[in-house]
Amino acid sequence: MVTQTRVNSERVYYNYGGKLPPVTLEPEPVTPPAPEADALPKLITDTTLRDGAQDSRFAVFPADARLKYYDLLHRMDNGIGGVYAVEAFIYQRRDVWTLEKLLVRGYEWPRVTTWTRATPKDIKLLVEVSQGKVKETGMLASASDHHIFDKLGYASKEEAIEKYLQPIRTALENNIVPRVHLEDTTRADIYGWVIPFMQRVLEESKGIAKFRVCDTIGWGSPDPYASLPWGIPRLFTVLRAETGAELEFHGHNDFGLATANSIAAWRYGAKKVNVAFAGLGERTGNTSLEQMVAALIRHYGDPGFDLTALEEMKRLVDTEVTPLPDRAPIIGEVFTTTAGIHQAGVGRQGGAPGGLIYLPFAASLFGRQEVELSRIGSLSGSEGIISVLNRELERQGSETRVKETSRVVKQIYDRIQDEYNGQYDEQHDHWVNARRTFFTADDILELAREFGAV
Description:
By secondary structure, the chain is α/β, with parallel strands linked by helices. The protein is built from 14 helices and 10 strands. The strands form 2 sheets. It has an 8-stranded parallel beta barrel, surrounded by 8 helices. It has a two-stranded antiparallel ribbon with strand order 9-10. Strand 1, helix 1 and strand 2 form a beta-alpha-beta unit.
């Protein structure tokens, strides 16, 4: 039963003097909804072109690249609506041009939505630039007392509510669904401001409004014992019980928990999670698109995504926006191993009845082709050497293949270890001139030639 709550006039701050914020725990965990009672489907919304574009590693997300990204996002969604919407800015000439081009494509999914500040002026601008084609917009509603008082300078929490209601009313008057972004919810006064505000918005919008619950500085915890306001399971359980509103989660990765918190939000009542490709965004970034696509498939089944689009999205962002980290899950260079014991497993998994041994999934699943599974370093074994050498021989059109029993493999292995050992300086009891780099395929082929294998 939903109970009407009142605004708390007192300020609620979480000031730990810049130190790591503690996670307090309750005696009992919050209980997740039964699977049959949990509303499906679970959906993804994309903020790569909005919050992702605020990443401090690059000065601008080029307009042409934004359009290419949207086309690839549409391809990945594959007409199923699993990626429900994509967000765009409306403030600069390039933003308006981009919005027009996004809308003219006429894609059903992802839907084009926008983001505005908490002013009626912004809503009127949106109506003007979109010519009524944008039917839903996000609008900022800073939720914590840190923001209400210290950032925005409002005199009271009641004043903040009245200010935020003005653009919401303007959106409703123009038949635009308001998606209210509760900024910094994980530091907010949940019962003393967030819930009363949400109830007021739902009352004025006749239940139309939607809400994005934002873990703006990444304080959230996926632990079901964690207290309000940072316990994501408890937060979504309480908000859904007290408001009945459609909820969405927006996570940041300051503590490396954006994906875990997003999965927890889905499990405890969120219908949607908000993401950016490769985790682009402020500081450590937003929840990553590719990780949540994989999570959705693993937890709720594959609705029919075209996962091969992710490889092209990676190339686009990597070349036209900003270099991406090699070790990023799903889209990074994560299929190659250098340790001998792992290379042995990878080398034997092709015909293994149990399937893959040292890979979590096939590289081809996400559009990766021609992946070299072995990289030759100081810990590599004979299986890795054979894999790299035979692959290079095949690439060059040679019919020669090296087997594990070949003496050349042992010779190459010994030479590799000699180079990584370097030379021992007895006088100073020190190793010098040791190699620090990997052996390339060309290096291995040259050694094979030296030892007469080819």
